[in-house]
Every structure is written in C-alpha cells, then in structure tokens.
Amino acid sequence: MQDTPQVVVLRLGHRPGRDERMTTHVGLTARALGADRLVLANDAASRAETVVDITDTFGGPFDVETTNQPMARLKRWEGTIVHLTMYGLPVQDVESEIRERHRDGDPLLVVVGAEKVPWDVYDAAEYNVGVTNQPHSEVASLAVFLDHLFEGTELDRQWEDAQKRVIPQAEGKQVEEQ
C-alpha cells in the first residue's frame, strides 16, 4: 500500500440490487487504468470484495476501502478534486491543467456518482469534468478521464504479485499462471 495515493476514485452512491455490476466495473476500471485506490460507500462492501479478489488474482498494487461517510472523505480531501459529470467542462479543455497538478505531486480525488449527486459535490470539486455532454455511463467517463490523465501510459502498466496473467493474442484466450 502506498503512503500517499496519487489517484483515488470515490464512488458516491450505490443502489443495492441495481448498481452491483456498475460499481464493480467502476472499481475494475479504476484499477486497470492507473488509479491507486478505490473508496466505496459501505453499502457497496460486497463489490469491494470482488475488486480485491481481482487485484489478488491479476496483480496490484491497488487498494480498496469502504466508508460509511463518503461525503466526509470528499470534504477532508487535501489535494485536487475532479468530479466526473456530463454537465462539466470538456475534458480536453482542462486535462493538461489537471495533469500538471497531478505531476507536481498533488493527490487527485476522482469522484463518480451513481444516483443523483448532491450539489455539495459540484461545489467541492475544483474541476467538474465531462467526457461528453451527453448521457453516458460513469464507467465510460472514468475510463476516458484516466486515459487522458495518463496520456495512454497506463495501458503499458506492469502488475506486481499477479497469480495470473492474460497473454495478449489475436485469437482465442490464454491466461498464464504465475
């Protein structure tokens, strides 16, 4: 576990029975595309276990935690807060400024919602960012944002302590035990 995570994804909200796969996919996307940590509301604890299992199997580092006060985490954050919303400024207009702050060592909290996001989130965020101003999924917006943040370098990331590794190939599926 890192002492100071540089990119933390905060999943605000989780509707049990409705958001199970979506919350899991937020976590898997955060892990696969370069975030250091995922914070979930307590009612998504079973999704946290799934993301931890994937990290144990396919490697890390990646931390997952739950909280019963996600808004308190947001309010206490010391660093840059980015809220992903279709109502925000276009990612291409703000990505270089956010990237520069991140590279200068400013921890980054990326907030993605599930249900209607409270207005306090918009106020707390230094950046309300949209990857498009059309309705879309929070998983898609997180993936596009992280790819822009890391300029594609996250796609070449090497994983530590993996039990299994996917072997890329043009056809078929191959997974290698480590």
Could you please describe the fold and organization of this structure?
The protein has 178 residues and is an alpha/beta fold. The chain has one domain (7-177): 3-Layer(aba) Sandwich (Alpha/beta knot), CATH 3.40.1280.10. The chain has six helices and eight strands; from the N terminus they run E-H-E-H-E-H-E-H-E-H-E-H-E-E. A six-stranded parallel beta sheet has the order 3-2-1-5-4-6, sandwiched between helices. It has a two-stranded antiparallel ribbon with strand order 7-8. Strand 4 (80-90), helix 4 (91-103) and strand 5 form a beta-alpha-beta unit. Helix 1 (20-32) runs parallel beside helix 2 (45-58), helix 1 runs parallel beside helix 6 and helix 4 crosses helix 6 (138-150).
Brief summary:
The chain is an alpha/beta fold.
What secondary-structure arrangement, pairings included, does this model have?
Blueprint: E1 7-12, H1 20-32, E2 37-41, H2 45-58, E3 63-67, H3 70-76, E4 80-90, H4 91-103, E5 108-113, H5 119-124, E6 127-130, H6 138-150, E7 164-166, E8 175-177
Parallel strand pairs: 1-2, 1-5, 2-3, 4-5, 4-6
Antiparallel strand pairs: 7-8
Averaged pLDDT, please? 92
| Alpha-carbon distance between the two ends | 21 Å
DSSP E strands, number: 8
CATH topology label: Alpha/beta knot
CATH architecture: 3-Layer(aba) Sandwich
Q: Indicate the low-confidence ranges by residue numbers.
A: none
CATH superfamily: SPOUT methyltransferase, trefoil knot domain
CATH classification, class level: Alpha Beta
Number of domains: 1
Main beta-sheet strand count, sense and barrel state: 6 strands, parallel
Assign an overall shape.
Answer: globular
State Rg. Answer: 16 Å
Strand order of the largest sheet: 3-2-1-5-4-6
The sequence of SSEs as H and E is EHEHEHEHEHEHEE
Helix content: 25-40%
How large a portion of the residues is in β-strands, by DSSP E? 15-25%
Structural class: alpha/beta
What count of helical segments does DSSP give?
A: 6
